[in-house]
């Protein structure tokens, strides 16, 4: 797995119905990052994912992967090996009868030998804690197990980036923690994890970089605390404050007696640090 880089420069995507899904988007992603694309429905999150895996093309602007323009079948094959997409609903992604057969598809399509396919499948399943389920029928899996198997689906190709569309959807808190743990481990091992979500609490807990989208444009790209303590930014993007940020602000106002317009960024950060240490 090389040190690949994704670069979008002034990208716009316009669909045939006239909808301009992305407008002047310039972003760069590197392996090892934990990024959340945050925005309300229709903000452009899904279109960015579709663009990155080659399902849609830029109407204007440039998409580079590892310094090369993404166009043509050879480049698309490279991109789809190096960038894996985990769908929001596992049922959309799961097609085989058994877990082993399901996860083997990607390795088979890359032309590996039977022995290498088996090695890669079991390695991918071990990374998500699903190796004991290898011979299990897919339709018998729980929702959380299906989610982890879909992550194995993309890990079998040893990607540089994993895209996760609303990974906490329809999962209970324990299963969400499992997915977070897998994503954290991937990032620690140099895989770029890019998550699409409208859940600001999840984003604050997981990411070290937040990209806020609104109406197809990037309106913020930076540190999570800088994003989530800016109420005007959140309002304009149709988002709410994360619970811990709202709690810290209310504590400052109602317990410490701060006026809303005198609460500094330092005050909020200090309270957040205290909350994290004591929760």
The order of strands across the largest sheet is 6-7-8-3-9-10
CATH topology name of the largest domain, in short, is Rossmann fold
Compressed to H and E, one letter per element, the order equals EEEHEEHEHHHHEHEHEEHHHH
Measured on Cα atoms, how large is the radius of gyration? 20 Å
State the CATH class of the largest domain. Alpha Beta
Q: Total number of β-strand segments?
A: 10
Give the quaternary arrangement of the chains. Answer: single chain
Secondary structure tally, helices: 12
The CATH superfamily of the largest domain bears the name P-loop containing nucleotide triphosphate hydrolases
Structure description:
The protein has a 6-stranded mixed beta sheet with strand order 6-7-8-3-9-10, sandwiched between helices. The chain has a 4-stranded antiparallel beta sheet with strand order 2-1-4-5, with helices on one face. The protein has about 280 residues and is α/β, with parallel strands linked by helices. It has helices spanning about 45-50, 75-80, 90-95, 100-110, 115-125, 145-155, 175-190, 200-205, 225-230, 230-235, 245-255, 265-279; strands at about 5-15, 20-30, 35-40, 60-65, 70, 85, 160-165, 190-195, 210-215, 215-220. The protein has 2 domains: about 5-230, P-loop containing nucleotide triphosphate hydrolases (Rossmann fold); about 240-279, no CATH class. The relative contact order is 0.15.
Task: Please supply descriptive tags for the structure shown above.
279 residues, alpha/beta, Rossmann fold, six-stranded mixed sheet, 12 helices, 21% strand
